[in-house]
Amino acid sequence: MIDEITIKEIESLLPNISRKIEIKGLIGKGGQKHVYKAIDLDTGENLVFKVLKVKGNILERLKREVRAVDIIDSNHIPKIFESNVNIVSEAESLIWLVEEFIDGDSLRTILQSGRTFSLSEVVEFINVMFLILEKAEKHNIVHRDIKPENIMIDVQGEYWLIDFGISRHLDLESITITHAPFGLFTIGYSAAEQFRNRKKQIDIRADLFSLGVVATEMIQGYNPYLHKASDILQVIKRIEQKPLPALRIDGDDRFLMAKFIKILGDNRLSRRPKTIRDAIKIFDIVKSTLNI
């Protein structure tokens, strides 16, 4: 069991950063992960300061997160300016990152306010995600954690994809134990091949599944797999046995957008587009039929 990060430990990291930063407030916290808003005292630039207390192969995961952000190099992924590791003990380390600050809200926060999204907004969301995923696919990277918590909408209405912390690099040796019954996943958003740890089947189509689920949630206001589920086993059963619901979307007079989202999030791997390029080709045809 890893102890929580203390304020003293956070403060001990600041002298190791090349920028002179001041912590302004906590953005989010989850056990061994703290995320702060910070300011560069020399430039006045807002930043994100992320600290994780880790052990074992989590260190390798951080290296891969930084690598993914660097090589994908998208205008819709926050840049990581600096990162390093501080040893706490033989068993534990503190990993910190200084990242680009996105002035806006997570999609989760917006959905929790009760808001749903229009057809044009969902089209723009998918457009941006395809731009990111097309680059990721070229570098054999699968995000593996597309969900409302990892999507930001800034004050200009632009979409951002964050947190490549469990990204899968298909050209590197897998970190997850091969014979583990479950891989890393977020319940309700991950495809069956991902949570069942079928490594040879995991590729960009796992991200397409998650994208289809998120688009459905943006339109109807809730995740159909999580909605009124009694436990995690029921969610898993739903994903493996039930398709996404048929959507009715204003402006989608021929129901092609609804069918496209359902194809993206098809629980059968073979039914999803094989590549992002294939998905984009279909999407271009769909967009030409929409009334937006």
Question: In a few lines, what is going on in this structure?
Answer:
With 292 residues, this protein is of the alpha+beta class.
Structure explained in plain terms:
With 292 residues, this protein is α+β, with helices and mostly antiparallel strands. The chain folds into two domains: 7-100, Phosphorylase Kinase, domain 1, CATH 3.30.200.20; 104-287, Transferase(Phosphotransferase) domain 1 (Transferase(Phosphotransferase), domain 1, Orthogonal Bundle), CATH 1.10.510. The chain is 34% helix and 19% strand. It contains nine helices and ten strands. The protein has helices at residues 7-13, 58-72, 107-112, 119-138, 192-195, 204-220, 232-241, 256-264, 276-287, and strands spanning 21-29, 33-40, 46-54, 80-87, 93-100, 104-106, 141-142, 151-154, 159-161, 168-169. The strands form three sheets. The chain has a five-stranded antiparallel beta sheet with strand order 1-2-3-5-4, sandwiched between helices. Strands 6-8-9 form a three-stranded antiparallel beta sheet. Helix 4 runs antiparallel to helix 6 and helix 8 (256-264) packs antiparallel against helix 9 (276-287). The longest helix is centred in the middle third of the chain and has 20 residues, at 119-138. The protein starts with 6 loop residues before the first helix and ends in a 5-residue tail after the last helix. Residues 172-183 have low confidence and may be disordered.
